[in-house]
Write a structure and sequence with these properties.
alpha+beta; 7-stranded mixed sheet; two-stranded antiparallel sheet; 57% helix; globular
Length: 430
């Protein structure tokens, strides 16, 4: 991710060690390498004073800093608005450089500022993309909020399945379905125990539960099965008005609220991005749904800024890396030094794509594991290759502005079927 960038000789270098309440600033002028130290507090007055002091220098200014949570965002945006060039310093590269320069593990703010200045001087920096200036701040907030709500919903769902239902209604889990089914939560919120069902009788239960279940095939049979299940349940004999059931209903209400919030975010995201051409192009790729497309645009921004798909793969951590020293050569594997959310999104999209019919991802998986259907290691490697392909396709459709074309490699004269290649090799050997 870190790359060398050329810096003009007359440029003033500014290194900032970011923190929550105060920033250590180290300014180096080109003539004689004179340095000036400043401590900038996290206030509007100090931010404006720093921007004014840098502007008064009257020379090009390059500011380098390490991302620290979200504490760097406000100062970086203020300096960007002032017209200064911003460079991002990799946290891993900063730590390794500090250890190499100072031959130790200890660190402090002033030392970090010196190391950042050194990395600015040698050009070991990254490009900084401000989400607000790039117009993706809203997308990032939607994507991250959706992820947080989804995780909370999953935790609540698992708590219901693994703690409450085994105690108060074990057999009802058979009707649970998937975690997006709100009707099941509505059912157990109204009838949390078998006693709450059997006490009112079959007819009254059918009348009350009928609107909760919604549209179902063989709905009457489902209602009857639930009632019969309640009659034969092994649940603990807990009264419906007990404190324990009150806690159970609280968790159910929380899960239902989270489902509603998640659905609302998905609706808002689709309304916001419906006219976005990049969003439309991503949605045409098998496996990429509304949330996956939102995450890609939120985390990567404008994919056109990556001149080659290898740069985008490296940004995602889907590039290959090999550890080699002397005669030793390690296994070639994914570097995973990149955006973990993008990597996970493309992996999940690939999992969906290979389960769909008639697309090049499913076809390519079949070619990878041909003759070895039960080899888990081969399948894992195939899924990794398909994940990288998903990222390449996403970059290509946006960069070129063309719609996804399935089985393009089949039409490419340079592409050869692996089975045919193996036969040709065997024939040549003979």
């Amino acid at each position: 991710m870190t790359k060398r960038t050329s810096t003009p000789t007359d440029t003033v270098l500014v290194a900032i060690d970011m923190s929550k309440h105060r920033q250590e600033v180290l300014i180096e002028r080109p003539e004689g390498g004179r340095r000036r130290r400043m401590t900038v507090m996290a206030t509007k007055t100090d931010y404006d004073r720093l921007a004014s002091d840098l502007a008064d220098i009257g020379r090009p200014v390059v500011v380098g800093f390490e991302a620290t949570g979200n504490y760097h965002r406000t100062l970086a945006h203020r300096l960007l608005r002032a017209g200064f060039e911003l460079r991002l310093i990799s946290s891993v590269a900063l730590a390794r450089t500090r250890e190499a320069l100072h031959n130790g593990w200890d660190k402090n703010d002033s030392k970090d500022a010196q190391v950042i200045l050194h990395m600015l001087r040698i050009g070991a920096t990254q490009r900084y993309v401000d989400p607000l200036a790039a117009g993706i701040n809203d997308l990032q907030e939607m994507s991250k909020t959706h992820e947080a709500i989804s995780k909370a919903k999953t935790q609540a769902w698992h708590r219901i399945l693994t703690h409450y239902l085994p105690l108060y209604f074990p057999e009802i889990e058979h009707f649970a379905g998937n975690s997006r089914s709100d009707w099941f939560l509505a059912l157990i919120e109204r009838f949390p125990t078998p006693g709450s069902i059997t006490s009112i009788g079959r007819e009254a239960f059918t009348e009350q539960v009928w609107p909760l279940i919604g549209r179902k095939v063989s709905k009457a049979r489902v209602v009857n099965d639930i009632y019969e299940t309640a009659c034969a349940s092994i649940a603990l004999p807990i009264e419906e008005d007990s404190t324990a059931i009150m806690m159970f209903r609280m968790v159910i209400a929380q899960a239902r609220t989270l489902i509603q919030q998640r659905n609302e975010i998905e609706r808002i995201a689709h309304d916001v991005l419906a006219v976005n051409r990049d969003y439309q192009l991503l949605r045409m790729i098998p496996g990429i749904g509304p949330i996956n497309a939102l995450t890609i645009l939120a985390e990567a921004g404008d994919l056109r800024r990556f001149n080659h798909h290898r740069q985008f793969l490296k940004f995602c951590g889907l590039d290959l890396a090999t550890c080699q020293s002397g005669m030793f050569r390690g296994r070639t594997k994914l570097s995973k030094y990149g955006n973990a959310r993008l990597r996970r999104t493309f992996w999940m999209a690939t999992q969906v794509a290979i389960r769909q019919r008639d697309n090049s991802f499913r076809d390519k998986l079949g070619r990878y594991i041909a003759g070895h259907p039960n080899d888990p290691d081969r399948r894992r490697k195939a899924m990794t290759a398909l994940t990288a392909k998903m990222a390449r396709v996403a970059h290509a459709v946006i960069k070129t502005g063309t719609e996804y074309r399935p089985f393009l490699e089949r039409a490419d004269t340079r592409w050869k079927d692996p089975s045919l290649c193996s036969r040709e090799g065997a024939a040549a050997t003979l």
